[in-house]
Amino acid sequence: MSVLVFCLLVFVGSFAAGCLGALTGLGGGVVLVPLLTLALGVHIKYAIGASLISVIATSSGAAAAYIKEGYTNVRIGMLLESATTAGAVAGALIAAKVSDGALAVTFGVVLLVSSYLSGRRQSEERPASTKPDPLARGLGLDSTYPSPDGPQPYTVHNVGGGFTLMGVAGVLSGMLGIGSGALKVLAMDQLMRIPFKVSTTTSNFMIGVTAAASAGVYLNRGYIDPGLVMPVMLGVLSGSIVGARVLLGARTRALRLLFSAVVLFLALQMIYKGLTGAP
Amino acid sequence: MNDDEPGSGQLSVPKTMSVERLIGTLLRAGVGMAATCCLCGGAVYLLSTGSHPVDYGQFNGTDLRFTSPPAIFAHWLDRSGRGLIQLSALLLIATPVARVALSLVFFTARRDPAYVAISAAVLAILLASLTGSLT
Fold it and tell me: Do residues A26 and A178 touch, judged by C-beta distance below 8 A?
């Protein structure tokens, strides 16, 4: 395949991934890695490097828009980023020690879980009420979010549990080159009892920093290749812009379910490929 | 907590500009610069190398001229356009890093020792990763 044809195919795939990401709120990384490895025969290490670039691009672009709406909690983000960045660096170091097949299988399993989490109805099974965490008050995490009736105050629960789960999200992000958005939202929404819209926007805010932490390691290790960076960055960015414009307000549950089904299929393919040894 | 309060006096920021707006502008500028740089590098890359065969099936690692910040700065004008693309990747990775640095400045100006320590720790991790000291 020539460079031109390859770039064109990767661009189209990344455009679709960016579009889907904007549409469903799930990052493009979960689609991009299977697409590059399964459909275009790219080695999983190059695919993970390219995916990290797409993750930083989309999350930074979206965070710039969200932060003005006033939902993003910068303090919660900053605090939890210390867990996600440390985890991401650890994940990048682990990825180097693990075989390519094991990496593919892990990716598939994480995809399965993400697919389940994003298909699930939001906040339907909140745990029985717990007490607000005094640590949250000490760290100034409690805040308000905008609503038609004026600012609504909220308190933050279980800071320790949320922090730990964020560390895990960071490891997965660094290992697999994904944003781990679904797990980040789970930690904030379910464990820390942060309002859903605050959880999703703050998660997005953190994804870029988390991905940057492992991207540095990957860049120095030669996983980030210009021949992939170019079509991926341009494709994902234009895809997410078009996705947000065209499909504004079209975030229906049916669409999320469809996306979950696609992810499920890709997950099984990745696991199969990882187990049968095809890189 | 009062995050939408305008940046305090110690920061040389226009009074109407909250820290959120400043962060938003920074992120947008970073992504915009990276995309522009990537577009230019990509055009050169396709014009110079477009007809060459390509295969990413084997992992050999990227050309060493494009794998560390100092090397990228030294070779960004590479004739194949790949240096410029890699510079755009570096700009993109540096965007969230700059955001954390900005938060550090902001928390320092607010005299908020806990968050100064937290943002300094995150910045240290990011810089260590980017400079290759962890690889």
Answer: no
Instruction: Give the whole-angstrom CA distance, residue A179 versus residue A76.
Output: 17
CA distances from B75 to A97, B62, B79, B81 (A): 30, 14, 9, 10
Check CB contact of A155 with chain B, cutoff 8 Å. Answer: no
A79 in B contact zone (CB under 8 Å): yes
Residue B72 to residue B64: CA distance in whole angstroms: 9
CB contact under 8 Å between A60 and B30, yes or no, is: yes
- Tell me the per-residue pLDDT of B71-89, one tens digit each, with 9 for 90 and over: 999 988 888 999 999 999 9
pTM (two decimals): 0.89
Domain ranges, ordered by start, for chain A: 3-276
Nearest Cα to A73, choosing from A162, A131, A142, A126?
A142
Closest by alpha carbon to A198, among A69, A21, A24, A83? A69
Question: Which stretches of chain A are assigned E, i.e. beta strand?
Answer: 143-145, 152-154
Asked whether A55 and A211 are in contact (CB, 8 A), the reply is yes
Residue B84 to residues A151, B48, B74, Cα–Cα distance (Å): 46, 13, 11
Query: Structure tokens of A263?
Result: 């992810």
**In which residue are the tokens 């870029």 written?**
A208
Whether complex ipTM tops 0.85: yes
For A19, half-sphere exposure in the C-beta direction (CA atoms, 13 angstrom radius) is 12
Digit-coded pLDDT (tens) for A246-264? 665 555 567 777 777 888 8
A83 touching chain B per CB within 8 A: no
User: Which residue in chain B is spatially nearest to A153 when comparing CA positions?
Assistant: B1
- Rounded Cα gap, residues B87 and B81, in angstroms: 10
Query: Max alpha carbon distance in chain B (Å)?
Result: 58
> With contact defined as beta carbons under 8 Å apart, do B81 and B48 qualify?
yes
Spatial separation of the C-alpha atoms in residues A162 and A211, rounded to whole Å: 19
